[in-house]
Amino acid sequence: MRLFTPQAMREADAKAVGLGYPSLLLMEAAGRAAARAVLERFAGRRVAVLCGKGNNGGDGLAAARHLALAGAEVRVFTALEHAGDALHMRQALRAHGLEAEPLERWQPRPGEVVLDALFGTGLSRGLEGFWAELVGRVNAAACPVVAIDLPSGLPFEPHVRATLTLALAGLKREHLFHPARAACGEVLLAGIGMPARALERPDLPELLTPRAMAALLPGRPGDAHKGSVGRVLVAGGHAAYTGAPVLAALGAHRAGAGLVTVAYPAELRLNLPLESVRHPLESWSAGALAGVRAEAAAVGMGAGPLAHAAAEAVLALRLPTVLDADALRPELVQAYVREGVPAVITPHPGEAARLLGGEAGAVAAEPLEAARALAERFPKVVVVLKGGPTVLAWKAGEGLEFAVNTTGNPAMASGGTGDVLAGVVAALMAAGLPPWDAARLGVYLHGLSGDRRGRVGLLAHELADALPEARAALERGEVRAFWAWGSPPGSARG
Ligand SMILES: NC(=O)C1=CN([C@@H]2O[C@H](COP(=O)(O)OP(=O)(O)OC[C@H]3O[C@@H](n4cnc5c(N)ncnc54)[C@H](O)[C@@H]3O)[C@@H](O)[C@H]2O)[C@@H](O)CC1
Ligand SMILES: Nc1ncnc2c1ncn2[C@@H]1O[C@H](COP(=O)(O)OP(=O)(O)O)[C@@H](O)[C@H]1O
Ligand SMILES: [K+]
Asked: How many CB atoms lie within 10 A of CB 185?
């Protein structure tokens, strides 16, 4: 499944029509789905449908007919300039004896649900004048708002703030990325019968889905032993940060590592899991790690000023490595590129800005572009740009792979959750997954654990402890994407 842009969705629409699929069927399905969403969530409530002049308005006109046919009390307000499919929908509404009023006449009524079908993906600039004022009135009315495709006005200001948004045919950037995502409220996806072939777009970012991620889970053969399912080396720690390597070790254990060895400065007292192997060091000298048995490593967590030496000592082992926290320095990542050692980097926006030489705010505002820039700066290195949502990028050869995570929530914005992730990704690489697969699955599972425990006040070690159950649920096929209709509690949230 891919993350669409308005332009890519217009192309999908044209491709469907090129395949012989009538566009009116798509609009009819969109209207039917919107009516269903309103009826399921707001049974028995009166509905005011506000329809714009484009195809989003056409979806609204179709929805109004289906709402009326289902027995709902509906008022329809519409722009008058319809053409094409939307005009057919207005005629269909009229054929059922339903007359629309001009939009200017809409006044909110207490308790009524507003179905926002003013604008969808068709805007190229912000709303002004009458339309901006109308959006202001929708937001000021104390009514639940169901938005068709997008809350009207997005991605610009002003825009409608919806309770529920019904994404049509595919998810768009606004359904996942802040600040637009906050305006969408809950997001549901309606397939609207778009032929799968019309949606095939390998050039667009992959959205991590439960099914695709379950397929990546490394097996656990009956004759597994602790040396066969992946051994992880965690290297980090410094006087001020003794928790970080411990949390990375915990993440690796909980993600299924057979053995976890933690290398750290000998003067530290680390409160390591009983199960971890201790490897205290007098210094991070070359050869300090000789003899450590591992198939993958994670370095940098809490390493402070010792990160450079620690990363170089780990590089000498030539293991697939997660570079995190203090090891996220351009010269260290370049050393992995130069040596051809597989690496995953896991920066948050501040660390990404340090790697790119920019501002954290600019990275957070345009995470897709920042992840792309990092992947191009460090070829063959898998980039995990953490945030809500986390974006992954990887320049394997000529092309660029791109993925966007669909799990995780703001409760995870708490110290140490990133350290857990480093351990998780290292454990999955140690289990034999290629770095791109380990990074995608690791990020997905980490967010899924957060969603299953997702309360403000979540501690990083609790997130790690929730990993086995999250993994088991994914393996059993019990996880549903946040956009799936009827998602049970504990499903992945975007
Ligand atoms: N797969 C698809 O692409 C499908 C799309 N459909 C619907 O079609 C929508 C897109 O339809 P359209 O491309 O007609 O676009 P919209 O309906 O979002 O809006 C286009 C209209 O808004 C006007 N407009 C643009 N910018 C404006 C501004 N700043 N101020 C005031 N008016 C402005 C345009 O002149 C045009 O009349 C989707 O969001 C979806 O709801 C569905 O009907 C079914 C299938
Ligand atoms: N608002 C949010 N929505 C989803 N995930 C979030 C959000 N805030 C933080 N996270 C996740 O929490 C983790 C935080 O990692 P990081 O910033 O490195 O923390 P630390 O350095 O304290 O370990 C990342 O995996 C990130 O994706
Ligand atoms: K809309």
From this structure: 16
